[in-house]
Amino acid sequence: MPEPYDVITMGRIGVDLYPLQIGVPLARVETFGKFLGGSPANVAVAAARLGRRTALVTRTGRDAFGDYLRRQLREFGVDERWATPVDAYPTPVTFCEVFPPDDFPLYFYRRPKAPDLEIRIAELDLDAIRSARVFWVTGTGLCAEPSRTSTLAALRARDRSGITVFDLDWRPMFWDDIAADTATPSDAATPSDAATPSDASIAPNASIALDAPGHAPSSPGQAPNAPGQAPEPDTPGARYREALALATVAVGNFDECAIATGEREPYAAARALIAAGVELAVVKRGPEGVLAVHRDGTVTDVPPLSVEVVNGLGAGDAFGGALCHGLLAGWDTARVMRYANAAGAIVASRLSCSSAMPFPHEVETAVAEGAVASRRAGPTSWAPTTSGTGRAGHGRETAGQGHGRKRTEPGQRRGTGRAGQ
Questions:
Q1: How many CA atoms lie within 13 A of 100 on its CB side?
Q2: How far apart are CA 421 and CA 49, in angstroms?
Q3: In 3D, which of 43, 38, 28, 26 has the Cα closest to residue 110?
Q4: Rounded to whole angstroms, how far apart are CA atoms 277 and 211?
């Protein structure tokens, strides 16, 4: 039997076209860099950079961009055997604008349909998926058929074995054929005035009591569905809860946790994710770093690192690849979170996503120093020599006529934007 993969990720891939001129509106940009993109693809690259044997389950168009992406995966050390072409749809491309410190608008071109949403059950190597030490899926994989059914089938094949990660990855503009979730998130505290469920002064690495699997969270503000009440059918929230019941680790920010659980306050959201079935809940808190809560009651609250941001769009995927690496290494949760924070911060200091993923010595240096050395470009063009300051934060996303705020990630002094597309 072939040796199991360390990490298999499944879902979105595309070509990122990033401007090589910083602080310039897209309409005026004259030069672009072409990069492999898509969150699951970037997570696989990030884990490979850290020495893990990785593979990606996805689909591209049968075109030159698809050929480019498969070549890039090979060059980054990611097995591309399950990155197969689709005749009907072109490979997606994504543009962004780069306005450090906190504005990185995204423009998705995934119409009429992205090939990565054409993953079918019959094409899945379920034996390889079952045996992988880590299997990583995203919320975007649930947004359309046949990807939705295939993603859930892969999760069921895992049967919660090994480390099964559900990246909540909420992209509302991708959800065409499912009605928007009508549930209103609870009136829990917002990030700026958040308190813990029981004690606003709870210390990092302390313990809190958690609800048993399948029980509704007991923190202030209930999730959209009361105990015993079935989720509303055909909503993103209902699909997310299906996936959470099949995962062992959940990763998401405030907005994503609200879609999945109805909770935005970090501690309440973590408790709700645990109640939904996972063993480890990771809540990305932007400028406050990252919160991790384990079913055994252990709480780890890790602050961000200082970094001068160039582009916040790659941080979350670097965080994800490093999270996989640390979990596979068997590190304690605090060490895993510090390492993943540092990986995310490093990528936020660089322009691209995939090619910016750090190597182990770079992450270890950032962890030891508690900061990332500046690589910031000048105001109008990219060069890894000059410096500047700022923070990563929120940006805009567009796809057709849809738009939304870009998700924030941990790992930076003041937070970073969503990694990948």
A1: 27
A2: 19
A3: 38
A4: 10
pLDDT in tens, 278-326: 999 999 997 789 999 999 999 999 998 989 888 888 899 999 999 999 9
Vertex 11: Cα angle to 247 and 114 (nearest 5): 145
- What is the reported pLDDT for 248? 98
The pTM of this model reads 0.81
Residue 103 structure tokens = 């504005």
Of 312, 285, 280, 313, the closest CA to residue 298 belongs to 280
| DSSP H or E stretch at residue 367 | helix 360-369
Rounded Cα distance between 102 and 107, Å, is 16
Tell me which DSSP letter residue 289 carries.
-
Asked whether 13 and 83 are in contact (CB, 8 A), the reply is yes
φ, ψ dihedrals at 244, nearest 5°: -60, -35
Sign of the CA dihedral running 60, 64, 68, 70? positive
Q: Is the Cβ–Cβ distance between 10 and 57 less than 8 Å? A: yes
Do 144 and 176 contact (CB within 8 A), yes or no?
yes
Q: What are phi and psi of 268, to 5 degrees?
A: -65, -40
Q: Residue 2: what pLDDT?
A: 82
CB 42 within 8 A of CB 420: yes
The contacts of residue 343 (CB under 8 Å, 6+ apart) are 46, 50, 318, 319, 321, 322, 357, 358, 363, 366, 411
Buried residues in 41-58 as b, exposed as e (16+ CB within 10 A): bbbbbbbbbbebbbbbbb
∠ CA 193-418-242, rounded to 5°: 85
Q: Dump pLDDT digits (tens) for 51-96.
A: 999 999 999 999 999 999 999 999 999 999 999 999 999 999 999 8
List Cα–Cα distances, 67 to 48, 165, 390, in angstroms: 20, 28, 37
- Enclosing H/E stretch for 138: strand 134-138
- Which stretches of the chain score pLDDT less than 70? 1, 177-233, 374-421
Q: Is the dihedral of CA 182, 187, 192, 197 positive or negative?
A: negative
Smallest CA-to-CA distance from 22 within 350, 379, 309, 352 is with: 379
Spell out where 51-129 has E strands. 54-61, 78-79, 83-86, 93-96, 106-109
Distance, in Å, from the CA atom of 394 to the CA atom of 102, rounded to the nearest integer, reads 6
